Amino acid sequence: MNELDYLNKQVTSAIFNLEKTERRLSRIEERIARLTLPFSVEGRIARRGAVRAAVAGRDDERAKELVARFIGENGTDEELGAELKALLL
After folding, report:
1. Which pLDDT tens digit goes with each residue over 29-78?
2. Sign of the Cα pseudo-torsion (39, 41, 43, 46, in order)
3. For the chain, what is the radius of gyration of the CA atoms?
4. Which of 3, 31, 33, 53 could form a disulfide with 46 if both were Cys (CB 3.0 to 4.6 A apart)?
5. Is residue 88 a contact partner of residue 61, using CB atoms and an 8 Å limit?
6. 70 contacts 51 by C-beta, under 8 angstroms
7. In this structure, are residues 33 and 50 in contact, taking their beta carbons and an 8 Å threshold?
8. CB atoms < 10 A from the CB of 48, how many?
9. Rounded to two decimals, what is the model's pTM?
10. CA distances from 55 to 4, 19, 74, 89 (A)
11. Do the Cβ atoms of 81 and 71 come closer than 8 Å?
12. Using CA of residue 16, residue 69, residue 61, residue 79, what is the dihedral sign?
């Protein structure tokens, strides 16, 4: 194996590990979102973080489900809804 092949395999492995970490982060942020109100600072950050990490982890279906759930929560304002939808683009 030449050096370029080796480095390409290292990049592929690093990307896979990063995506796995992002999916884990999304689940942690979702747990924080469950414990906070959507209009609180921490709640807004957690909801955006859960969606952003799902997108970064290439889990688009999960990201869409989170956006739909978070928008449907009592206390989610239009601004947060728009921010969450924008993360899907």
Report:
1. 999 999 999 999 999 999 999 999 999 999 999 999 999 999 999 999 99
2. positive
3. 16
4. 33
5. no
6. yes
7. yes
8. 18
9. 0.92
10. 29, 9, 24, 9
11. yes
12. negative
60-71 vs 41-56: helix axis angle to the nearest 10?
Answer: 160
Q: At residue 47, what is the residue type?
A: R
Instruction: Tell me which residue has tokens 């290439």.
Output: 58
Q: H-helix or E-strand containing 66? A: helix 60-71
Here the tokens at position 16 are: 């896979």
What is the structure's pLDDT at 1?
A: 77
Phi-psi sector, 27: left (phi>0), alpha (psi -120 to 50), beta:
alpha
Show the tokens assigned to 50: 């859960």
Rounded CA-CA distance 34/50 in Å is 11
